[in-house]
Amino acid sequence: MKKIFAGAALLASALHLTLAQPVSKPKEIVLDGVAGFQDTPLQPESRWHVHDPARPQPPVVTPGTFSAAATPPGDATVLFDGKDLTAWRDRKTGGPALWTVTDGMAVSAKGDILTAQNFGDIQLHLEFREPAPPAGAGQSRGNSGIFFMGLYEVQILDCYSNRTYADGSTGGLYGQHPALANACRPPGDWSTYDCLFTAPRFGAHGELLSPATLTALLNGVAVQNHQSFRGATNWRVPGRYTPHASELPLLLQYHNNPVAFRNIWVRPIPHVQEP
Ligand code: MG
Question: Which member of 14, 183, 189, 211 has the lowest number of beta carbons within 10 Å of its beta carbon?
Fold first, then answer.
C-alpha cells in the first residue's frame, strides 16, 4: 500500500498535482511535563510550532490587588450583574443561555454563550473563578475563554501550578501569542480581566487593512500589550483572517469545565484611525 501511494505521489508530483495525504491523527507529546504538539504548522516568522510544548512558559508574576468587584463606569453596557443572563444567548440555538446562575455568578455549562448585542472595538471588564479543588490537567483544567467578535480568543484556564503549551495558557491569544506573564490566582479565588480590543479592518475587497489587537491586564498584570491576532484563533492551526462585519457578538466558551463568572461589562471605544 505504501509503495502504491509513493508511486502515485511521484506521478502526481511529475504532473504537478496535489494528492490528498493519508489522514494522520494529531500526535500529542510531553516535554518537561508539558503536553503539546510539534506536528502542527510553524507559527509564521517563528521557530515554534502551534501549541509547541518547548515554547518558553510565561514567567509567573504574583498579582496584587486590582479591579475585583469594581463597579462599572456610568456609560458601560452591563452584560452580567449577577442576576440573569438576558444579555446572552446559547450559541447553538440562539435561545436562552444555558449556563447556571447562582449566588451572583454565572457558571459555564452545556455550550458557548454569546451576547445578543454586537460589538467592535471595546473595553471589557470580566471576573472569573476557577473550580476548587482543581480537576484535570493541562488544557482540561478550568478551560473557558473570551472570544472577541466570537472569533479571537484570549484564553481562560487554571494555570496556577498547571503547565500547558505556552500559546494556550491563561492570557494567551490562543494558539498564537503566549501571555507576557502568568498572573493566575489560585483556584477558588476571583480573577479579573481588563481588556482593550480593537476589531480588524477589512477593505472593500475583503483584504485585511489592520489586524485585530488586544491589550489585556489579568489581575492588574499586563499579559498582552497591543498584540495583533494572526487571524481567528483555533486548535492546531495558525490564525487566518476571513472578512466579516465590523461588529459581532462577544462569546464566552464552555469547554467541559464549570468556570464561574461575575461582573461583566463593556464600553465601546472606537479606535481613531486618523491622527
Ligand atoms: Mg479556551
Answer: 14
For the chain, the C-alpha Rg in angstroms (whole number) is 20
Q: How far apart are CA 226 and CA 51, in angstroms?
A: 21
Contacts of 136 (CB under 8 A, 6+ apart): 142, 257
- Provide CATH code, domain 2-23+59-268: 2.60.120.560
> Is the torsion defined by CA of 155, 157, 160, 166 positive or negative?
negative
Distance in Å, CA 143 to ligand 1 centroid: 5
Ligand 1 centre distance from Cα of residue 177 (Å): 14
Report the separation in Å between the CA atom of 173 and the middle of ligand 1, taken as the mean of its atom positions: 10
Cα(111) to ligand 1 centroid in Å equals 12
Instruction: Output the pTM of the full model.
Output: 0.90
How remote is the CA of residue 54 from the centroid of ligand 1, in Å?
20
Query: In angstroms, what is the span from residue 84 Cα to ligand 1's centroid?
Result: 23
pLDDT digits (tens, 9 = 90+) for 120-177: 999 999 999 999 999 999 999 999 999 999 999 999 999 999 999 999 999 999 999 9
